Amino acid sequence: MTDILRYDRRTVLFHWLTAGLIVLMWGLAQIIDLFSRDMRVLPRSLHIVIGVVLLGVVISRLIWRNTGGTRLPAADTGLLGIAAKAVQLALYGLVLAALVLGVVLEAARGDIIFWLGRLPGFAAGDRALIGGIAGYHELAANLLLILSALHGGAALVHRFVWKDSVLARMTLG
């Protein structure tokens, strides 16, 4: 049995924590409008707080990736390798875009957080501006989820069709 190349524990934990938080936030975003206006504060507050946590995780992940994270050789060569790198860059770009747009949306809108108080909003009454920012935030999040699903699907193809160890690289072993 050959040894499997694996990412270090912190890289793996950052990867799966990022994925889990993204899925959780996207799910919360889908149900916010199911709540009454008064109760909408809870899922929206959770979405915002988890977004701040995710922003911290992504920044920490990028710092770790560039300072101490394990670097493995590309799993694929040729066009598949180029596509994998492009998807990886697009995933980072979309998660950062969704997070930055979320921060801008919150700065513009201002929301009540857990009924504790309202954050200041620089354009709280400007429905057109807030709607535009919200639309781009939603688009980035939806594209991120779609691309994440393709990324996960590719990992499953590696595991079950090509029967290689690419998926195992991102496990704790």
Poorly predicted regions are none
* Share of helical residues: 55-70%
Element order: H for helix, E for strand: HHHH
Distance N terminus to C terminus? 14 Å
Mean pLDDT: 95
Query: Any idea what the CATH architecture is?
Result: Up-down Bundle
Q: What fold name stands as the CATH topology? A: Fumarate Reductase Cytochrome B subunit
Largest sheet descriptor: none
Shape: elongated
Our estimate of the beta-strand percent is under 5%
Topology, number of strands: 0
Structural class: mainly alpha
Provide the CATH top-level class: Mainly Alpha
The figure for the number of domains is 1
Tally of alpha and pi helices: 4
* CA gyration radius, whole angstroms: 19 Å
List the helices and strands and how they pair.
Layout: H1 9-31, H2 41-67, H3 78-109, H4 127-160
Explain how this protein is built.
With 173 residues, the protein is mostly helical. It has one domain (9-170): Up-down Bundle (Fumarate Reductase Cytochrome B subunit), CATH 1.20.950. The protein has four helices and no strands. The protein has helices at 9-31, 41-67, 78-109, 127-160. Helix 1 packs across helix 4 (127-160), helix 2 (41-67) packs across helix 3 and helix 3 packs antiparallel against helix 4. The longest helix has 34 residues, at 127-160. It is elongated, with a radius of gyration of 19 Å. The chain starts with 8 loop residues before the first helix and ends in a 13-residue tail after the last helix. The mean pLDDT is 95.
